Amino acid sequence: MRSIRRTLLWRLFGGALVLMLVGTALLYAGAGWLLTEQFDTTLRTKLATFVTLIDEEGYNIDIGFDEKSMPEYVAAAEPEYFELWLFDGQVLYRSPSLGDADLPRSFGTEAAPLVWDLALPDGRAGRAIGAEFTIRHYEPGTEDPGPAHVVFVLARGRGTLDRALAVLLAGTIAGILLLLGVGIFIGRSAVRRGLLPLEALARHVGAVDDPLRASRFPVETLPDELVPLAESHNQMLERIRRAFERERRTTANIAHELRTPVTELVILAETAARWADDPRSTSRKLGELREIGGQMSNLISTLLELARMESGHVPLEIEPIDLAEMVRDCWSPLSATCEAKGVTFRAPSGSGPLVRADRAALSILLANLLANAVQHAPEGDEIGCEVGNTSERGFLVLSNSANGLAAGDLDKLTEPFWRKSLARGDRTHAGLGLSLVARLAALLELELSFRVDAGVFRAEVGFPAPAGRVDPGTSPRGRPRD
Amino acid sequence: MRILLIEDSPKLVDSLRLGLTKSGYEVASAGDGELGLRMALGGSWDIVVLDLMLPGLSGHEILKRLRAAGSNSHVLILTALGAVEDRVRGLQAGADDYLGKPFSFDELLARVQVLTRRRFGRKTPVIRIGDLEIDTVGRTVRRNGALVTLTHREYRLLEFLAFREGEIVTRMEIEEHLYGSRSLPLSNTIDSAVCNIRAKLKEQGTAPLIHTRPRIGYVLSAEAP
After folding, report:
1. How far is A385 from chain B (nearest CA, A)?
2. Is domain A227-311 in CATH 1.10.287.130, yes or no?
3. Is there a contact between B105 and A271 (Cβ–Cβ < 8 Å)?
4. Cβ partners under 8 Å of residue A93, min gap 6
5. B52-104 pLDDT, tens digit each
6. Could you tell me the domains of chain B?
7. CATH classification of A318-463 is 3.40.30.10, yes or no?
8. What's B35-46 look like in SS3?
């Protein structure tokens, strides 16, 4: 399994190692160059010294070499060597340490002598400097034979240089290893500490086996990078919790809605069978049984219709519909109930806006919305209805007295069987009307919203961009004020 | 026995009223919470059958207020809320029993009978007083093993006296039990009914069981006062 910690550590250490190797190589090369340059500077100084020591005495060339003052050129444990030639190759002088051996006759100029590595006559590794130059001194009082052109090569063991370079290399490697060790320790600790909030979040998320009981993850102490993740997790938990609760309420409501009529059926049947001595009473009870059966059948049909809509398998035929006309059509069956309750309805007059929807689905939606308004309007109330359109959309607004409905109830309005009061109330109303309205609105891609304002409940349906007429009584510039 | 039925389903109320009345109970009903509470507090009820989800005032609230007012009526909760926590909540609030919907009438009746016996400290459905035996489930009366045929009202009166064996039961209590808040058609109705019961009991045994306490009421006891 991939691990952020391992990936981070590998990449961190890999990067640090490469950087350290490159840095160390550069450091070693630079320091080595400096040490070698220092060694070569010593060689140049020695060369310059010998240049001043070589002079002419007539036709003889003399080298002012003194074994006592320059014992390193005498045979010793680790001697140095020099050799002097005429330019034509004739050996003029060898250091005592050289014996009969010769040094390689390589050379540059006096200004830019040649320096190179070589194997010394005694087998050690050494470094030599060679230059050709013209002797500028001569012994006063002797005949001047003219300038003599000679070649001088000086060689010395490079043991001290190699040892210094080896120490430098060893120190550098030790430094790398030390830095690497410390880096691993610090890196692991830093990565571990850095990943602690992420691990805490992962543990929290991993421990969620029941979203209903899971606690919210505290985002206050989280680093900025993880806050969106934790907030998203918290929001998701909240959504799941709300969905579960809604589902549970719906299931409980369905059970409750079915238990009461089932009880009525059982008790009616039992009492009717046991005390069947009164034919009129029995006949009435049979009628009631039929009525309860019908109500249960309606309830089940509506539940099935809801399930069908939620599945999305509802064929739609979208066409232009006159909204005002359809509202009036849907109102007709409710007018008698409305009259009996003393409720007045202000139906939209004339032609309303043309909206695009499925006629059958919109008809059911409007009928349920209107029936809900009639159901919950108190006696003597007035149900307002406005239709119209703006440049962006068509709309329908139904308003009636809130009748105890609060703003906090609005998000439960479309839940199946939700009622403000726990009591069953009017048994002709199953509490599914607004659930159907919500499902239909989603199916038709309409905007459905509810609000309670100053004791007035408003249900608003927004339609997609309308394709036609504007109701003369409605401002085309915006929604009407209720 | 007087039962108050607080339930908002008219169909259920009608059927339960019929069944309970036919089973020998005096039944009154209320269709909403507020009326139910008023009736529960205003009358003397042996058993209150209480729905929880009521318009106006919930059953839980009614129960709470009943107990706060010191009512000792037995309360049988009758509701569609069948979850364990609902049952526990109802019983903890002072209910004596809990019956979840759907239920059968026989189960309701059996529970009502249990509550009736419990109200009078009885554990068995058969009451024995001397040679008298009253089966409160079968609603039969025997003396010396022989069946005594009583009218519906006579049975209820005898059962009421039997439940309170050895206690003086006042005429007012008997009136309340038999007729509820309704006024009696005649002032000597109770005395007349008692007289009839005595006569029927005497056919199967000689020892008097119902004893009169002048100007107070009656005592049912195997021993003479």
Report:
1. 29
2. yes
3. yes
4. A63, A65, A82, A83, A84
5. 888 888 898 999 999 999 888 999 998 877 678 878 888 888 899 999 888 99
6. 2-119 (3.40.50.2300), 126-220 (1.10.10.10)
7. no
8. HHHHHHHHCCCC
Token digits for A356? 């695009």
pLDDT value at residue B139: 86
DSSP-derived 3-state class of residue A426: coil
CA-based R_g, chain A, Å = 53
Longest dimension (CA), chain B: 56
User: Does A252 sit within 8 Å of B22, measured CB to CB?
Assistant: no
For the cut 50, the answer to whether the pLDDT of residue A470 exceeds it is: no
Beta pairing, strands B217-220 & B169-170: antiparallel
Which DSSP string corresponds to B42-105? HS--SEEEE-SS-SSS-HHHHHHHHHHTT---EEEEEES--SHHHHHHHHHTT-SEEEESS--H
**Which range in A469-473, B61-65, B177-181 is most confidently predicted, on average pLDDT?**
B61-65
Alpha-carbon gap, residue A229 to A210, rounded angstroms = 19
Q: How confident is the model at residue A459 (pLDDT cuts 50, 70, 90)?
A: very high
What is the share, in percent, of chain B residues with pLDDT greater than 90?
A: 34
Which one-letter amino acid corresponds to residue B62? I
| SS3 (DSSP) at A447 | strand
| Binary contact (A267, B56; C-beta < 8 A) | no
- Restricting to B residues 51-90, those with a Cβ less than 8 Å away from any Cβ of A are 52-56, 58, 80-83
Average pLDDT on A97-114 reads: 92
CA distance A482 to A468: 23
In this predicted model, which residue has the larger pLDDT, A205 or B224? Answer: A205
pLDDT at residue A91 above 60?
yes
* Substitution target from A260, A263, A266 for chain B, most B beta carbons within 10 A: A263
- Position A155 scores a pLDDT of 95
Determine if the pTM surpasses 0.80: no
* Partner-chain contact A262 B101, CB within 8 Å: yes
Does B55 contact A259 at a Cβ distance shorter than 8 Å?
A: no
What's the pLDDT at A434? 87
Q: Which amino acid is at B39?
A: M
Summarize the confidence of residues A359-387 as an average pLDDT: 88
Distance of CA A356 to the CA centre of its chain: 42
Whether pLDDT at A72 is above 80:
yes
Comparing CB atoms, the residue among B18, B33, B53 nearest residue A275 is: B18
Determine the number of helices (DSSP H) and then strands (DSSP E) in chain B.
8, 12
Structure confidence at residue B181 (pLDDT)? 57
Q: Residue A263: name the closest of A275, A271, A251 by CA.
A: A271
